[in-house]
Amino acid sequence: MAQVNALFSPETSPHSVDLQTFRLLCDTLSFYTLPGDETKERERGGYMPALLSPEEQARFQSLAQELKGHEAEFHSGLLASLSAGYRDLDETSVGSLVSRLRSGKKPSPPQKAENEILWQAMLILKLTEMFREEEREIFQGFLAISGKEAELFAAIRGEETGDEEEDEEEAQALRELAAATTQGGSAINLNRLARAWGRLFIRDAKAAAFPLLITNHEKLPEILAEVYEVLTGRLPVQLVSLTLPTQAESEADPAALAEKFKAATGASRERFKQLLLAVAASEAISAELLAELQEAGNDLNRAALPFLKRGLAEKALRFYAYEGVSFIDLFASLCGETRPATTTGTGILAVLS
């Protein structure tokens, strides 16, 4: 049986809503966590790809706590620079915020270049997590206001608002909608985020074990395509697009949906995974292999139709192949770093939209 292991990019500790559709196809999902989060995220598939010393990890966690108390400074400083509309400063600008937040304390001894790289990358990723959480909270606030308005209008009209259980289910669905919506609509500077994530990825001893990267960022293929074209003179290959069912976690058990989907699409899903792994293992994608994969994708789409006819929402999962180039080499080039040559294969990116 083909085993597809996927790694989420380019953010850390994604919300469960961001992962549920990928679980229909992938056998295991992993993602990166930052110091302080690894224990609580381990069961969901989270792990730290690069380790700081225990002393440095403790200092990072301490700094993360300090950052949470300086929200106003974020908006006038570095968090604003994470916006896509802000000029693309170098990642070392993180250091200025760190210095201001730790002013008055005894400065730490100079760090080695490798530790500096990890610190800068982890801080950008941590700030992005906090920025993302703030977006969700703001959106949830708007949803709460909308819910109160609906209740008020219903009361004015003399209508019943429904029982408490239904109200709670609707509220939970709205909260999860907020979590999912902010992922795709954020103004995060994706170039900077991808470089920060990439610095951890190219230092991850497990990186080569993932034939597939998955993302909710629809612009990530464009960023990687530019790097790939510089390296090879070619554009990535658009492999296939799947149409998959999705639902809010409050509507039913997402794990149950995944199991039902896997059972109903067993043969076509297995065939698709086998061919996808064959593409990942190849240095050059033959026309025959591409045609087989596309045919298998069409079969899987047909097998998924009964789920879509039940009224479930749908999402598109598009696959891109970076023929003859591994993601380690691709992200090393994006980050401007030199890494030892990796075993040649083909990196595959799956983009949910």
Structure report:
Residues 83-92 and 98-107 have low confidence and may be disordered. The chain has three domains: 5-32 and 192-352, no CATH class; 51-126, no CATH class; 128-185. It has a seven-stranded mixed β-sheet, with helices on both faces. Helix 1 links the parallel strand 1 (5-12) and strand 2 (28-32). The protein is of the alpha/beta class. It contains 14 helices and seven strands. 54% of the residues lie in helices and 13% in strands. Helix 3 runs parallel beside helix 7 and helix 7 (113-157) crosses helix 8 (164-185).
Number of helices, where a helix is a run of at least 4 consecutive DSSP H or I residues: 14
Given helix and strand content, the structural type is alpha/beta
Range of helix content: 40-55%
H and E string: EHEHEHHHHHHHEHEHHHEHE
Order of adjacent strands in the largest pleated sheet: 3-2-1-4-7-6-5
In total, the number of domains comes to 3
Give the percentage of residues in beta strands: 5-15%
Q: Would you report the number of β strands? A: 7
Whole-number radius of gyration? 22 Å
| Mean pLDDT over the full residue set | 78
Task: List segments where confidence is low: pLDDT < 50 over at least 5 consecutive residues.
Answer: 83-92, 98-107
In this structure, how is the largest beta sheet organized? 7 strands, mixed
Distance between the termini: 28 Å
Shape: globular
